[in-house]
Each structure stands twice: as structure tokens, then as C-alpha cells.
Specification:
- The complex is a heterodimer of chains A (270) and B (258).
- With 270 residues, chain A is an all-alpha fold.
- Helix content of chain A is 82%, strand content 0%.
- Chain A has helices at 2-10, 18-45, 49-64, 72-103, 112-127, 130-141, 145-169, 174-181, 186-222, 228-237, 241-269.
- The longest helix of chain A is centred in the C-terminal third of the chain and has 37 residues, at 186-222.
- Chain A starts with a helix and ends with a helix.
- Chain B has 258 residues and is of the alpha/beta class.
- In chain B, strand 9 and strand 10 form a beta hairpin.
- Classes of the chains: A mainly alpha (270), B alpha/beta (258).
- Chain A binds chain B through residues 172, 174-175, 177-185, 187-188, 191-193, 196-197, 199, and chain B through 49, 51, 75-79, 81-83, 85, 87, 89-94, 98, 102-103, 105-108, 110, 113-114, 155, 158-159, 162.
Chain lengths: 270, 258
């Protein structure tokens, strides 16, 4: 018996293959080196920055308080504009996403070239920052809501189509086979076997992108793409810090309320 | 009538699915195809509705070579051949009724089906089919709320609603327990007799094949190694088909309870 045990422990294999162990070790050191280099780099850039920042912070904050409540009535309009921008942009993006997401899902688009073209197109969309899009569209169409909406549509299309195509790829393919076997065409197969499976995730992701759009549309206003961001930028440029503070508080409240509502809806869905 | 003439199928990765298959299935027959897993039973059955496409030979359904079918012809063929799957293949989040109505897809226009604007007769037919498999009280339940046996009955109702000429059942009882297996096979047999639907069932359980088949076709390594009425079949035949001695796991056992 004891002999058996001894031979057993002699032959115990390690839990991971040696190759994996070496790979993981190398990756660990590479990542560690990256951390160290970036720490050294940024610190040299910020040398002497922190103490100055702390001193300035008090002076800056002093200017912002107390917030000026009189601007509330004047600011409600642009705030609603910002929300509307997000609603319109999210809706248009949610509609345009459907065909793009289907074309970018490997299990639906079996024709490889079309799949790769759509994937690449979506990847390019996502590499353009929303702020750059807004600057370009403001240059093309002038200051206002329209360029902001366009920028948001393209920005959210990139995220939505990517996330939804991945949801589609993880779907149970058996029912689709059954629809095909009963003589259904492509559209019938998609609407009967695919849509019921992805609908909850689709709604949830659209709401999530809507949240992102509310925040993004504030930032876009800063470069002239309309809404509350535009007003905030003006007030900051005129050094009306108490007004700016009030606007920031309003944005804060609105974003929190909308996020709360959309989180509740998403919880109910999944 | 379904006729295989020298049908062969080689998958893109080189696996041989079917080899020189010659087989004629007459209208109204209840044929059980037996063989170990990997013997080509699935490939054979899926060739008939072209879920897989044989690479050589000719395959006639109602005297038309279906191997050249594409697009519309193919959908028409599939409308004519209803299929039952091992994993039921229902849309789990959809209601039972909606799943059963999916059997009408081949008969219904795209817009009509996408907007759920089914003809009254189609809905009546779906309801009637559910009644035939005794599950009409569950029409608004989500499919994943049902037990395995109930789900398989819903998938039988889906095939009935399709009003096919042929039923292809690919291991319909492999995921079920013995009593429900017998129940499902009894429904298939009943439909075969009442509607005179040609039924082809893949099974690997010897006792079930013997109990329900009119005719047994044995397959091994993509070839047909036996074909004859059930009266000619003994355990010896199965040993020849399987190429090994019979074991306990080759029997489903049990019988239908209630």
C-alpha cells in the first residue's frame, strides 16, 4: 500500500503545462515592466505639480461657490435639448444597429468577406473619439444641435453594433436550424428564432448607450455641438463660476436620475 | 416516395458521412434507422431535407432530384418534410403557441409571419395540433417552462402544423427518460397511422426500434448494412449492424406510465 502511494506522488503532474507556466511568467514581467516605465515617465512629467495643484484647488473652488440658483430657469431649456439629443441619437443608432449587428455576427453572416468588411467598418467607427466627430461635424454644419446628434449617432452605433453582434454570436443555434428545416427563409428565421433570444439584451444595451449618450452630449456641447455643454462652456469662458457650478449640479442630478431609471428598467428585463 | 441512388457524402474535413447508399422509402411507411453514433443516421436523415448536401449520387423526393435545389425550391422541399430534433429546438423564450405557429413559416409570406398576422385557419390548425398531442392547456406558457417530454410534444405539434408529407425524427427520444420516450414514440406512430405520413426515425435503442418500426434500416460507417421488415429482425441482426455484441445500454427499457 505504502509503496503504491509513493509511486503515485512521484508521478503527479503539475496543474498547468510547463509551456503555459513560462508564458504566464513572461507576460507577468512584461506587464510589470510596463507599469514601472509608465510610473517613472508620468512622475517626471508631473514633477512639482501636486503641491501647486492643491494650493490652486482651494482658490478655484472658492470662485465656484456659492452656486447661483437664478440660472436654473434659463438652463432648463438647454438641459432638455441635451436629453433630446441623446434620445434622438440613441433611437437612430438603435435602428441602424440591427442590420449592422446581423452582418457583423459570424453565425448569421456566413459569407466571410461581408462579415470581415462590416467588422472592419465598425472597428474604424469605434476608433474615432466622439469629441473628434463633434469637431468635424460642427465644422461642416456649424454650431448647433444637429452636428451633436450626428456625432452621437456614429459614436453609439460603433458601441451598440459591436456589443449586439457579440450577443447574437452567443445565441442558441438549434431553433434557427428548426426554422430553416420547416421551410422558413432568412428573414423568418431571424425574426422567429433569433430576435426573441436577443431582445432583452438588445433593450438593455440600448438603455446603457442612452446613459452614455447623456454624459457624452454634455461634453460635446463644449465644442459647440449644442445643448447644456454649450451654455456651460460660455459661462466658464465669461468666468461666471457660480453660474457654471449651478449648471454642473443640474447635470449631476439629471445624469443620476436617468441612470437610476435605466438601471431599474434593465434589472427588470434580465 | 424517397429514393437514394448511390448517394455519398464526404464532409469538408474528409469525414465520410454516407457511402453508396441505395434506399427506397415508400409512402406511409414507418422506418426506423438504427446504428451506433457516428454511423451516418443523422447525415442520412438530414440529406432528405438538405440540411446537409450529399456530394455524389442522386436523391429523389417525389420523383424529383432534390440535390440541385436552391432557394425557393429548397424551402418548398423543407415545407414538405417536417423535422423533429433530439434537443426539441424550440425557441425557449417564445410561447408554446408561437413555437407551433413557426411550423407555418414555409406556407406564410415573410411580412405576414414577421407581424404575426397569421390566417385564422393557421392558428386553428396550430391549436388543433397541440390538442392532438395533449398539451393545449399550455399554449401561453414559455417553452422553457415545460418538461423535456412536453417540449418534444410541442415540437411534434409544430411539425403537424407544418402539414408535411414526410416526418424526419433525428434521435427524438435520446434526451428523454424511458416513460416519456415511449409516449413520444406512440404519438409519432399514431400520427403515422392516422395521417398516413411517411415517418423516418433515427434510434439507437434496440427495444424501441423493434416495438415501433414497420421496417428497420441498419447503418454502419456510412453504409446501409441491413434493410428489412421488423419481423425478420432478431438480436443477431443488431449484433451484425453494430458490429459488436449487444449490451445493456442498447435498450431503453421501461414502458409508458399513464
Amino acid at each position: 500500500m505504502t509503496n503504491d502511494k509513493k509511486t503515485l506522488t512521484d508521478q503527479v503532474p503539475s496543474i498547468y503545462p510547463v509551456k503555459t507556466k513560462i508564458q504566464v511568467t513572461i507576460i507577468f514581467f512584461v506587464v510589470l515592466a510596463m507599469y514601472l516605465t509608465s510610473m517613472i515617465w508620468t512622475q517626471s512629467q508631473m514633477a512639482g505639480g501636486f503641491t501647486g495643484a492643491l494650493g490652486n484647488m482651494f482658490n478655484v473652488m472658492k470662485n465656484f461657490f456659492p452656486p447661483n440658483p437664478e440660472v436654473i430657469s434659463a438652463v432648463i431649456g438647454p438641459m432638455l435639448e441635451t436629453i433630446q439629443m441623446a434620445i434622438i441619437a440613441t433611437t437612430v443608432a438603435a435602428i441602424l444597429t440591427v442590420p449592422l449587428a446581423l452582418l457583423a455576427a459570424r453565425n448569421v453572416t456566413t459569407f466571410k468577406p461581408l462579415y470581415y468588411i462590416t467588422r472592419t467598418f465598425l472597428n474604424i467607427l469605434r476608433t474615432i473619439p466622439d469629441l473628434v466627430l463633434a469637431v468635424i461635424f460642427v465644422g461642416l454644419f456649424g454650431i448647433g444641435l444637429f452636428p451633436g446628434i450626428l456625432a452621437l449617432i456614429i459614436f453609439s452605433l460603433g458601441i451598440l453594433a459591436k456589443l449586439i453582434s457579440e450577443t447574437i454570436e452567443s445565441v442558441d443555434m438549434d431553433p434557427m436550424e428548426a426554422m430553416r428545416a420547416s421551410g422558413g427563409n432568412v428573414f423568418q428565421t431571424i425574426s422567429y428564432a433569433l430576435i426573441p433570444q436577443v431582445l432583452p439584451q438588445y433593450v438593455s444595451l440600448v438603455l446603457y448607450v442612452f446613459e452614455i449618450n447623456i454624459r457624452a452630449s454634455v461634453v460635446l456641447g463644449l465644442v459647440g455641438a449644442g445643448g447644456i455643454g454649450l451654455i456651460l462652456n460660455q459661462q466658464l469662458q465669461f468666468y461666471n463660476y457660480p453660474n457654471a457650478m449651478m449648471i454642473i449640479i443640474i447635470i449631476f442630478v439629471v445624469v443620476i436620475v436617468i441612470e437610476y431609471i435605466s438601471t431599474k428598467i434593465r434589472e427588470a428585463l434580465i | 416516395m424517397i429514393q437514394f441512388k448511390d448517394v455519398g457524402l464526404v464532409y469538408p474535413n474528409g469525414t465520410v458521412g454516407l457511402k453508396n447508399v441505395n434506399l427506397t422509402i415508400n409512402d406511409g411507411e414507418f422506418v426506423v434507422i438504427v446504428g451506433l453514433s457516428g454511423a451516418g443516421k443523422s447525415t442520412l436523415i438530414r440529406s432528405i431535407n438538405r440540411l446537409v448536401t450529399p456530394t455524389s449520387g442522386e436523391l429523389y423526393v417525389d420523383n424529383e432530384d432534390i440535390l440541385k435545389y436552391r432557394g425557393k425550391d429548397l424551402r418548398k422541399l423543407r415545407t414538405k418534410t417536417g423535422m423533429i430534433f433530439q434537443n426539441y429546438n424550440l425557441v425557449k423564450r417564445s410561447s408554446v403557441l408561437k413555437n407551433v405557429l413557426a411550423g407555418r413559416l414555409g406556407h406564410t409570406g415573410t411580412l405576414r409571419s414577421i407581424f404575426n398576422a397569421y390566417k385564422k385557419e393557421d392558428v386553428a390548425l396550430a391549436y388543433e395540433s397541440l390538442k392532438r398531442v395533449n398539451i393545449a392547456d399550455k399554449i401561453y406558457n414559455r417553452a422553457d417552462e415545460l418538461s423535456g417530454g412536453q417540449q418534444q410534444r410541442v415540437s411534434i405539434a409544430r411539425v403537424l402544423t407544418q402539414q408535411p408529407k414526410y416526418i424526419l425524427a433525428d434521435e427524438p427520444v435520446a434526451s428523454l427518460d424511458p416513460p416519456t420516450s415511449h409516449q413520444v414514440m406512440k404519438y409519432l406512430k399514431k400520427i403515422n397511422k392516422e395521417d398516413n405520413l411517411t415517418t423516418i426515425v433515427n434510434l439507437h435503442f434496440i427495444d424501441m426500434a423493434m416495438e415501433y418500426a414497420d421496417r428497420i434500416v441498419g447503418m454502419r460507417a456510412g453504409e446501409i448494412v441491413f434493410d428489412g421488415p421488423v419481423s425478420e429482425v432478431t438480436e443477431k441482426t443488431f449484433e451484425e449492424i453494430y458490429g459488436r455484441s449487444i449490451r445493456e445500454e442498447d435498450f431503453r427499457g421501461g414502458s409508458e406510465e399513464s
